[in-house]
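Build the 3D complex.
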Amino acid sequence: MRVILLGAPGAGKGTQGKKIQEKTGIAVLVMGNILREAVRSNDKIGVEVSQYITKGELVPDQLVTSLIVTRLQQKDCQDKGFLLDGFPRTSEQAKSLDKEMAARKIKLDHVLYYVIPDEIAISRIIGRRICSNCDTVYHLQNNPPAKENICDVCGSKLSQREDDNPEVISKRLATYYAKTTPLLQYYEKQKLLRQIPANRPIDLIFQETLKVLGVR
Ligand code: AP5
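Done.
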């Protein structure tokens, strides 16, 4: 199965992607996590990437595409397929992905679009906390850890993403509308797009997601 998750920042792509991974064992490639890992390594690419992320701007197409294409060549993506969260985000990236898949004679099965009003997305991002060690995602009110500020999975401390502040969030939303929403039409034309209302409890969205994916 090969799947793309689309939706505004804070729509819940990462949350649903994790649950799909747990249920199906599919390889989940989270572009934001791949980029944040590059930033943590503090090498030349990481320093370049950081300049875009902290401003809420997109990292250049060529760079993100080469990172994803390299990752797609790994065995886990070939065994059970893959789920892409946060890639593609521009028409250029979508075309590059199509080319890459055509070269390997594989096709996408589903593009899921999680639909959410901006004000809900913003409140989700403001309350989000992330494990500094294993990247597990929490929310102060909607999805809190059992122990305050401590990750349920690995016991490490939680922190807030550097780009989860009001100024950068508005920039990310504006970037999303300008650069990423044209992809809705792109995949609609390919008859792959399925809308899923995302202003609902996590488990309800997950049930609908599994139904759309045809997973029992
Ligand atoms: P990225 O990390 O991908 O951020 P994003 O798209 O802005 O998405 P988010 O991670 O903010 O939200 P999400 O939809 O995953 O929501 P989540 O499940 O965490 O990208 C960051 C940056 O990297 C970009 O700005 C850009 O600079 C760069 N970048 C990334 N990809 C790129 C690309 N392809 N090209 C160029 N640059 C790129 O949920 C949010 C919160 O809500 C959590 O706290 C969660 O617990 C809670 N929550 C989730 N679902 C629900 C629910 N149903 N009800 C209540 N609360 C919920």
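Residues 38 and 183 are 26 Å apart (CA to CA).
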